[in-house]
Amino acid sequence: MRVVTTIAELKALLDTYRKEGKMIALVPTMGALHAGHASLVKRSVAENGVTVVSVFVNPTQFNDKNDLKNYPRTLDADCRLLEEVGADVVFAPAVDEMYPEEDTRSFSFAPLDTVMEGACRPGHFNGVAQIVSKLFYAVEPDRAYFGEKDFQQLAIIREMVRQLALPVEIVGCPIVRENDGLAMSSRNTLLSAEERERALTISRTLFESLEHAKSNDLASTKAFVENVINSTEGLCLEYYQIVDGNTLQEIAEWGDSEYVVGCIALFCGKIRLIDNIVYKK
């Protein structure tokens, strides 16, 4: 496994693989890797000739400076995990490498980016589009792999690829959960033991809502989730929206869409967590 830190070195290395006719895939990450990331890499390794994993905490997608400052950075451990799961290249650039000058590009993905995370975190998806497009230009991958836990992000990246006419296939991969149901996230490492236990309410409630939905209307199901979260000490709900899985717009009735997803964001103590559940697809 090769670890490179500059775009020039990365491009030179990947050119040698392309001359050998190998398919190149990218798994973009912000590090602090866990089994969820490992599952993306393993799938990429199985489906492509060369797997590049980027490890870069992107400053332009954080609208909270403390969140950026506190985001876990564990490059040495990340590289050990990536070598174990078969990654070929780790791209771990410095901020100045990715942003030698300010990126002033402004993207619009309306209405995908005007709801949920887009409404709560102004500028977040513009920052995501900036860095993911930069990574795509640097790597020129045939495929790129993203987790479905960041459901809205996945939809927006697909739209960005369409808008920019980039020749890359976007592969969405299922949420990976801990044995107790908690969606894997780099932010989980920031939870205290008590908060970690409390956070189990999120996935438990979402799965219970699947049963609730079988005999109740959408409004009742939404209220069920909101009431459980709001009544749990230490959890502060930011939103729970039941949306069309393609447009990300809220729906009023189960019959309004063939693809229905419930998306949640909340604070567990000071740590912001997201999750989602598919009601119908």
Task: Outline the structure in words.
It is a single chain. The protein is α/β, with parallel strands linked by helices. The protein folds into two domains: 2-173, 3-Layer(aba) Sandwich (Rossmann fold), CATH 3.40.50.620; 186-280, Pantoate--beta-alanine Ligase, Chain: A,domain 2 (2-Layer Sandwich). It has helices at residues 7-19, 35-47, 65-70, 75-84, 95-98, 117-120, 124-139, 151-164, 193-214, 218-230, and strands at 2-4, 24-29, 50-55, 89-91, 143-147, 169-173, 235-244, 260-268, 271-280. Helix 8 links the parallel strand 5 and strand 6. Helix 7 (124-139) crosses helix 8 and helix 9 packs antiparallel against helix 10. The chain starts with a strand and ends with a strand. The mean pLDDT is 97.
Radius of gyration: 19 Å
Mean pLDDT: 97
In the predicted model, the low-confidence regions spanning at least 5 consecutive residues are none
| Secondary-structure element string | EHEHEHHEHHHEHEHHEEE
Tags for this model:
281 residues, alpha/beta, Rossmann fold, Pantoate--beta-alanine Ligase, Chain: A,domain 2, 10 helices, 20% strand, globular
Topology (elements, then pairings):
Elements: E1 2-4, H1 7-19, E2 24-29, H2 35-47, E3 50-55, H3 65-70, H4 75-84, E4 89-91, H5 95-98, H6 117-120, H7 124-139, E5 143-147, H8 151-164, E6 169-173, H9 193-214, H10 218-230, E7 235-244, E8 260-268, E9 271-280
Parallel strand pairs: 1-4, 2-3, 2-5, 3-4, 5-6
Antiparallel strand pairs: 7-8, 8-9
